[in-house]
Specification:
The chain has one helix and nine strands; from the N terminus they run E-E-H-E-E-E-E-E-E-E. With 120 residues, it is mainly beta. The strands form two sheets. The protein has a seven-stranded antiparallel β-sheet with strand order 3-4-9-5-6-7-8, with no helix packed on it. The protein has a two-stranded antiparallel sheet with strand order 1-2. A hairpin with a 3-residue loop joins strand 7 and strand 8.
């Protein structure tokens, strides 16, 4: 992605010499380019502050996902949720799901959500 140059018009600001001249979105939100994906959300997850149409940045290289907001494949669908430990059980919790997962469950963590992008 190309850097975005900021152009100033009118009277130059005295603080102009102290500001950033460019902003690189990739350097801000992507730490592992080969394992980072941008996904558009198709449903509201109000409890997590995610709205329909938001873009989430997902890093598939993060291995420690417990208690973090994740994208997982659950019973054939990509779902946003969290993996919690309760009394030696692994529980997947999402908007309308709270279910114990085991080796027999059709469940796989895709990646950890690291950033949320939203148009205002």
């Amino acid at each position: 992605m190309d850097k975005i140059k900021i152009s100033f018009t009118g009277f130059p600001s005295p603080a102009r010499d102290y500001g950033e001249n460019s902003l690189d979105l990739n350097s801000l939100v992507v730490s592992n380019p080969c394992s980072t994906f941008f996904l558009r959300v198709e449903d509201n997850f109000e409890k997590e502050g995610i709205k329909k149409g938001d873009i989430i940045v997902v890093d598939t290289s993060i291995e420690n996902f417990e208690n973090k907001l994740i994208v997982a494949e659950f019973k054939g669908e990509l779902v946003i949720g969290r993996v919690l430990k309760e009394k030696n059980k692994t529980i997947f919790v999402s908007k309308s799901i709270k279910e114990e997962v085991s080796e027999d469950t059709n469940f796989e963590v895709f990646g950890v959500i690291t950033f949320l992008l939203r148009k205002l």
